[in-house]
Write the structure tokens for this entry.
Amino acid sequence: MEELLKDVHPKESRKIPQYYDLAHGVAFKFHDELAKIVVDLESTGSLWVNLDVSDEQKLQLESLEGEDLWSWLEEMGRTDVLIDMTYRQVSAAVISDAAYFIFESLSACARGKTAVAFSLLRKPLKENLLLLEWICGDPEDFLLNFHGESADDYILNRLPLDKRRKIVKDALAETALDFLDFDFIWGVRFDKSSPRNLETLWTKATHLVTSAKASATEPGNLNFVFSSEAAIHDQWEYYYQVVPLFLLYMLNVSERVVERFIGWDQRLRPTQLLVRQLAFVRYAEFYQGRDYLEEMRSDFKELEFTCTSCGETVKCSESDLDLFWSKAEIRCTSCGIKISVWDILAHGSG
């Protein structure tokens, strides 16, 4: 299993202990799903809106882009199209931007660069995610502020505390992730009083010397610069306990945002959710030391596919489980090849 998980992103120069391979693989799995949202939106043309116009207006539109296009839509009284396009474009851009930072953070953590890894998480988890939570829980309010008279209306750290807390609560309710609670989702990112959360680590990773009580630098030390081996392992431990959970949450928030203007491929969706659930439960049972997969293992072993190479029926076994969630593949016991689950579904042989 360990060697399989090292192949999730094999080009990395890995320094993390093998103990963290599973959490690292799960975190990258959720990152890849997040990035794929944007790829799918772009490839299906879902970022654009159909607009019925005259031939004359069509000629005008061909030379317009950016702010000029926005202004033209306002002049034509098509604020409905303007709002729809804003929702789509902002959502995709914020998800894409977050995915780039998260990729670099995960890669840095794998190389043992924990200060860089934590620093790179600050923007996507504190800002991008909060903006997505706002769009998720109250899209009308976000769009009203976004199209207001000043960008001051949507500077996230200037929003009233009560409003930011409500944004997070509303988004969390939309995801239906019952095992996550508000105190965790909020506190880890925004509570400055706790010595052990992301907010504190972001402060220490960004500044050589800090004086706030929860993140105060020890005398004769510099934040993250003189970390002992034990301190680095402690940083890894916290990173891999928290980050996969937040990536799963961010993935669910992002999907809730975009599914308001796209439809999922119902042939693939159940399998996509199964793969994700298996990844998360493997991560959860690893850290909790409990067999969360007992029922899912039974369901998994009930799955049957037809091999796209030899045509034989393939029954899933427990030994395929990690291969299934990490690469969406299963091994044919007849011909020995690894088969892509997506290829199987594309051929209608699942």
Observations:
- The mean pLDDT is 83.
